[in-house]
Amino acid sequence: MGTYRESLRVPVSWWVIAAATVITLFVITAVPAGKVAGLVVGGLSAALLVLLFLRYGGARVEVDADRLRAGRAEIDRSYLGAVEALTGDAARQAFGRDCDPKAYLVLRSYLPGAVRVQITDPGDPAPYWLIATRHPDRLAAALDGHGVGRS
Fold first, then answer.
1. Of 43, 65, 107, 151, which is least packed with CB atoms within 10 Å of its CB?
2. Do both 64 and 135 map to the same domain?
3. CA-to-CA distance for 25 and 131, rounded, in angstroms?
């Protein structure tokens, strides 16, 4: 059985944009209202952005001998069916026009690939899980039981 672990952290570019946003908010508040107001607005916006990025980017994908965990959900490996690694247009279409509304999604728009895992549990309403990943081939191999991966 393969094992795999990945944290779906937000990219560095998002942190750079957030820093520029905080600086901009500080300046546009501090100039007319004073430094204290600028620091309050800048500080609150920085705290909010850090909290959001850490929460959103804190999603993990883990595969071990017994379970698949993706985001907040987990499922026993005995209920996993066919596994398909998706990249490029196939990944974008899987999350877009080809997506089943009942599917369980772990979508991160900044990740280039995905893995679709069919669910065989008759009591589960989701026909498949669609999981965004930086390494679709490694995740698919771990789910098929042929690989080991960590990032």
1. 65
2. yes
3. 35
